[in-house]
Amino acid sequence: xxxxxxxxxxxxxxxxxxxxxxxxxxxxxxxxxxxxxxxxxxxxxxxxxxxxxxxxxxxxxxxxxxxxxxxxxxxxxxxxxxxxxxxxxxxxxxxxxxxxxxxxxxxxxxxxxxxxxxxxxxxxxxxxxxxxxxxxxxxxxxxxxxxxxxxxxxxxxxxxxxxxxxxxxxxxxxxxxxxxxxxxxxxxxxxxxxxxxxxxxxxxxxxxxxxxxxxxxxxxxxxxxxxxxxxxxxxxxxxxxxxxxxxxxxxxxxxxxxxxxxxxxxxxxxxxxxxxxxxxxxxxxxxxxxxxxxxxxxxxxxxxxxxxxxxxxxxxxxxxxxxxxxxxxxxxxxxxxxxxxxxxxxxxxxxxxxxxxxxxxxxxxxxxxxxxxx
Length: 374
What we know:
transmembrane, signal-anchor, membrane, 10 helices, alpha-1,6-mannosyltransferase activity, Mannan polymerase complexes subunit MNN9, Spore Coat Polysaccharide Biosynthesis Protein SpsA, Chain A, globular
C-alpha cells in the first residue's frame, strides 16, 4: 500500500528534528569542561591585592575607595563554583575562609589582642562588626578604627586580615550596657530581640560566596586558645560551641577562680518542654534565672577540671559568646529569630531553627573561652 506524500514528508521532518536534538544533547554532555573559562576560587578572592574596585563587587572582597574625580569601572560579573567552598576538619590545609562576626557596643583592647593572637592564617580571615549609634557606639568605633589602622598597615603583613567591615546601627541599645543591667530578666526579651536583629543584619551583609565558616565572637570574650578556629573546626560539626567561663576573685578562697558565664548552651528537659506547652505565642523561655526553673542540663556545669578538651555533647540550645557555624547552615536559612520561635529567641532560637532545617548543635564542655569581668 502506498504511503501518502504528506505522511512521508512528516516522517522526514521528524527524523531531522530527532537527529538535531540528539546532537544538541551530545554537545552539552560531552563538551570538555576544561574548555570553559576558569572561575575564581575562594583562596584567590581573599587576597588583599584583589580589592574590589566597585561598591557592587562581591561582599567577600574589601572595597577600595576611588578617587572622586576618577570614573569607576562597571561592576564586575563574577562566577562562583559553590562546590569548591569546603568545610572540613582540616580548614587550614584546605584554605577555608573564616568570617568572624562581632556585635560590638564597647571596645575591649584584650578582645583585639586575642584576635591578633589567633594562629589561623589571617589572610583567610575576614572580620565584621556592627556597632550601635550613640556616644558609647561612637567611642567604640573610634577605638576599633584606631586598632584596625595599625593592624591593616601595609608593613604589618603578619597580622593583617583579608577584609574588615564595620556597620553602624540606626538605633541605640534598648538597655544600659552595664553587665548587671544587661542580664536582668525584665530586659531579656527586648534586649535579645535587638541583638538578634543586629546579628542578622551583620550576617546578611557580610556573608560572601567564598565563606566556609562563620565564627560568632562576642566583643567581651577576651581569652581563647590561639588555635580556637581550627580546634573547633576539627570536629567537623555544623554548629559547635565551647564552654564560656569568667575569671574572678574568690573572696572565700582569697585567690583567683573561675566560674561559669554562658548558660545558653543546654540540653532540653521535660520540665522546660512542659513549660513551653503552657505558654502563650509571644512568651519565651529563658535560661539561668531562678524565676524560670527549667531543669535543663547546662553545659556550663558539665566541665571537668582535668577533662578531655575534645569531649563533645549534643545540645538543643547554644550561646553566642563563641560559636562556630558552617556557612552552609546560614545559607540554608538558619538565622537568629528576633521573635519567639518555639518560645526561644536569639542564639537559642537559632539552634532550634537550625535543628528544624536538619542541622544539629554540639558543645565542648571541657574546651574553655573566657569572658571579661567588669
